[in-house]
């Protein structure tokens, strides 16, 4: 039974290895920088995020073109749609577009001889709203924002402590008692996690997973701060010699912790570093306790001779 | 460390510092002079073909491997694992031989001379591995082994990645010679000096906090020991197979390890140092399986990023790739410096260290070097990196399966 289970597990886990194959069900040619001359047949889509490319007259592209940024000169044939979001699109005299041309932004230069078999949509795409530019922060704005952040996190801490008191306690304990290990794990999770999520973005298909991962990473950092805030609340209670309920203690502790953190983060040069260290400790504590589901016990406690 | 300072246990503190200094210098010599310098000496200065250099390097690896195993076994038989002074004498001999070999390397002018000289280098390395590693049970208490390994890794990579200048044999020879000539009289003095501190150090292996490695409490089975060797073999193999190809790709060297921009080299150096210190903290607190998983996972991700980068034909390097690479390398180097002593007692450490370092490190390096040179002519860069990525992923998944297996109560690895 165990062997069957292991074999099944091995088969399941080896499935991701198919990702290492050169050709998949979906193909995309991604251009991020440099100058490229495209000749011959291209079966997939073309996504341009930068650089320059020329689809030469003998080249054919079966899929769609998404021009986000960069320069694309089309001399050959495109069977799919062309979406111009940003950058420069030039249709040469021999260009043939079998699909639609969607112009949402960027600069478009058609040549007289170019042929577009589908329809051309102009200005009907998504238009990005013009955001008002903020030259300066209004007086007291930063303070107000920081206070609001601290209160919001304080309330979240109180609610979490009310419903998941043990989880918050475990995270707080791991972060405060094993700060070095938590910081190290947090650093690894942060650096490797962000690299992994960015890599996922390049696959296009995994962009939603990447966004979810980023959200989970942010949530873990905040949960870590709440854990540290809960420990701060307990310390405050001890210093004031006033017993506080866990939820109240978590609220006050998180409020104070976040305000102090924001104050420290405003110190030039070392402020950012302090912020990163505290975020890493929080993230590490959450990772070590599996979001507070288990208590973290250092392995060496059981291993080392007294 | 602060505990030792606070308790004014200066002999122990001196012992740890001595071990860290010796091992860091030794690893710096290995990283620069042996791994990078010898190939340059053979190919550029002696004009040997790539195949001849690969063959000679393979000979070096095999000889070193064999010498380490034989000498480790001999040390075990003679009970030298418990003789601190004998180990210092042997270290002095190794450093003296390395100094002489490094000095005469400037006059090598033929492949025959190169081969004879390599045999000498193998002898020094082969004896040096069991001798230096077995000093751990005399000088570093179990609870500090992760931190000692972290310091060794951080110091050696700090020097190698940040301040080695151009990767040329002449530069490596000059720096190595300076280091060896400074270390030789110092180790000589310790070898022949009688001092209460040295007497105290020579008895430390009798104390349980030095003698019984972290993983020896429940007894280490042969299966477990060779399991670690296979895991470390996998790490070395994946690292060398990928890095040797990247080493030949100017885009990835010029934008990272060999960048003319000092800030980039400093960034990679800092990553090595931070990664090593993080690994030190993790080694002392986590079980070994998660650490191995981290190393294979990071290698898999790094090579995936490299293969993406190659596929999109980007013309400039991305710093996240060498950063992840440096992180993985620092993690596993810390593991390698601490694990063999923690699987041993003073009676078993010479052979265990020789088995661990020789079978995993040298054999993997030998095999991957030969394979990387062969693939350099047969496979495209993209395919080469994809295969390395698949291997890393395979090791990661295999280890994940083992991680899901139930562990014995006494087993912590």
List keywords for this structure.
heterodimer, A: alpha/beta, 6-stranded parallel sheet, 5-stranded parallel sheet, 49% helix, B: 413 residues, mainly alpha, 17 helices, 80% helix
What does this entry look like structurally?
The complex is a heterodimer of chains A (306) and B (413). Chain A is α/β, with parallel strands linked by helices and 306 residues long. Chain A has eight helices and 16 strands. In chain A, helix 2 packs across helix 5, helix 3 packs across helix 4 and helix 3 packs across helix 7. Chain A is elongated, with a radius of gyration of 27 Å. The model of chain A has no long low-confidence stretch (mean pLDDT 83). With 413 residues, chain B is mostly helical. Chain B has 17 helices and no strands. Classes of the chains: A alpha/beta (306), B mainly alpha (413). Chains A and B meet through helix 1, helix 4 and helix 8 of A and helix 13, helix 14, helix 15 and helix 17 of B.
What is this structure, in a nutshell?
The complex is a heterodimer of chains A (306) and B (413). Chain A has 306 residues and is an alpha/beta fold.
List low-pLDDT spans of chain A: none
The helix count of chain B comes to 17
Largest sheet of chain A: 6 strands, parallel
Number of E-state strands of chain B: 0
**Main pleated sheet of chain B:** none
Strand order of the largest sheet of chain A: 1-4-7-10-13-16
Measured between the Cα atoms of the first and last residue of chain A, the distance is 41 Å
Mean pLDDT of chain A: 83
- Strands of chain A, count: 16
Multimeric status of the protein: heterodimer
SS-based structural class of chain A? alpha/beta
Question: Secondary-structure map with pairings?
Answer:
The complex is a heterodimer of chains A (306) and B (413).
Chain A: H1 2-14, E1 28-31, E2 35-38, E3 41-42, E4 45-48, E5 52-55, E6 60-61, E7 65-67, E8 71-74, E9 77-78, E10 82-84, E11 88-91, E12 96-97, E13 101-103, E14 107-110, E15 115-116, E16 120-122, H2 141-163, H3 165-177, H4 179-202, H5 207-240, H6 246-265, H7 270-288, H8 300-303
Parallel strand pairs in A: 1-4, 2-5, 3-6, 4-7, 5-8, 6-9, 7-10, 8-11, 9-12, 10-13, 11-14, 12-15, 13-16
Chain B: H1 2-6, H2 10-45, H3 50-78, H4 84-104, H5 111-134, H6 136-139, H7 145-162, H8 169-192, H9 196-203, H10 208-211, H11 222-247, H12 250-254, H13 262-285, H14 288-311, H15 320-342, H16 349-378, H17 381-404
């Amino acid at each position: 039974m165990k062997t069957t289970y292991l074999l099944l597990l091995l088969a399941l886990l080896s499935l991701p290895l198919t990702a290492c194959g050169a050709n998949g069900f979906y193909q995309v040619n991604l251009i991020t920088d440099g100058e490229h001359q495209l000749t011959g047949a291209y079966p997939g889509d073309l996504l341009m995020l930068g650089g320059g490319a020329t689809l030469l007259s003998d080249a054919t592209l079966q899929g769609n073109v998404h021009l986000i940024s960069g320069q694309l000169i089309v001399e050959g044939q495109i069977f799919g749609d062309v979406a111009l979001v940003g950058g420069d699109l030039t249709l040469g005299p021999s260009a043939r577009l079998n699909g639609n041309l969607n112009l949402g932004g960027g600069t478009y230069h058609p040549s007289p001889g170019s042929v577009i078999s589908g329809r051309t949509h102009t200005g009907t795409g998504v238009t990005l709203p013009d955001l008002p530019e903020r030259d300066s922060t209004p007086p007291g704005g930063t303070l107000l924002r920081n206070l609001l952040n601290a209160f919001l996190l304080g309330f979240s801490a109180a609610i979490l402590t009310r419903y998941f008191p043990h989880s918050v306690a475990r995270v707080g304990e791991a972060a405060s008692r094993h700060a070095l290990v938590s910081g190290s794990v947090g650093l690894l999770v942060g650096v490797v996690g962000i690299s992994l999520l960015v890599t996922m973005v390049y696959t296009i298909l995994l962009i939603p997973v990447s966004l979810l991962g980023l959200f989970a990473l942010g949530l873990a950092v905040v949960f870590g701060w709440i854990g540290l805030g809960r420990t701060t609340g307990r310390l405050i209670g001890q210093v004031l010699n006033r017993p506080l309920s866990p939820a109240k203690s978590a609220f006050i502790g998180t409020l104070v912790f976040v305000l102090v953190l924001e104050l420290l983060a405003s110190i030039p040069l070392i402020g950012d570093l302090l912020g990163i260290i505290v975020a890493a400790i929080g993230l590490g504590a959450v990772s070590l306790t599996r979001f507070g589901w288990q208590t973290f016990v250092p392995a060496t406690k059981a291993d080392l001779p007294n | 460390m602060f505990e030792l300072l606070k308790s004014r246990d200066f002999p122990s503190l001196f012992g740890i510092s001595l071990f860290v200094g010796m091992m860091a210098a030794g690893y710096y010599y290995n990283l620069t002079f042996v791994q990078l310098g010898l190939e340059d000496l053979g190919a550029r200065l002696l004009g040997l073909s790539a195949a001849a250099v690969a063959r000679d390097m393979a000979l070096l690896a095999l000889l070193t491997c064999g010498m380490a195993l034989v000498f480790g076994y001999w040390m075990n038989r003679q009970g030298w694992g418990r003789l601190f002074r004998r180990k210092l004498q042997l270290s002095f001999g190794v450093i003296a031989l390395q100094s002489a070999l490094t000095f005469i390397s400037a006059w090598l002018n033929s492949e025959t001379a190169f081969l004879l000289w390599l045999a000498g280098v193998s002898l020094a390395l082969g004896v040096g591995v069991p001798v230096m590693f077995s000093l751990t049970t005399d000088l570093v208490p179990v609870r500090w082994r992760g931190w000692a390994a972290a310091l060794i890794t951080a110091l050696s990579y700090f020097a190698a990645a940040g301040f080695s200048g151009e990767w040329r044999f002449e530069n490596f020879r000059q720096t190595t010679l300076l280091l060896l000539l400074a270390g030789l009289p110092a180790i000589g003095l310790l070898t022949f000096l009688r001092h209460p501190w040295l007497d105290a150090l020579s008895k430390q292996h009798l104390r349980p906090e030095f003698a019984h490695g972290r993983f020896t409490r429940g007894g280490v089975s042969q299966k477990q020991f060779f399991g670690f060797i296979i895991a470390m073999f996998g790490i070395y193999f994946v690292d060398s197979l990928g890095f040797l190809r990247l080493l030949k790709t100017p885009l990835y060297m010029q934008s990272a390890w060999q960048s003319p921009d000092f800030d980039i080299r400093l960034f990679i150096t800092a990553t090595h140092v931070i990664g090593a210190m993080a690994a030190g903290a993790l080694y002392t607190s986590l079980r070994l399986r998660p650490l191995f998983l981290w190393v294979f996972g990071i290698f898999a991700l790094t090579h995936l990023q490299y293969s993406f980068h190659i596929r999109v034909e980007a013309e400039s390097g991305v710093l996240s790739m060498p950063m992840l690479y440096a992180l993985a390398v620092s993690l596993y180097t810390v593991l390698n410096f601490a694990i063999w002593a923690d699987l041993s007692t003073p009676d078993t450490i010479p052979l265990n260290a020789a088995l661990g370092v020789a079978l995993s490190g040298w054999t993997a390096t030998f095999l991957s070097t030969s394979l990387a040179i062969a693939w350099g002519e047969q496979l495209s860069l993209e395919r080469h990196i994809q295969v390395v990525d698949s291997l890393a992923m395979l090791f990661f998944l295999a280890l994940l399966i083992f991680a899901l297996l139930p562990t014995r109560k006494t087993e912590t690895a």
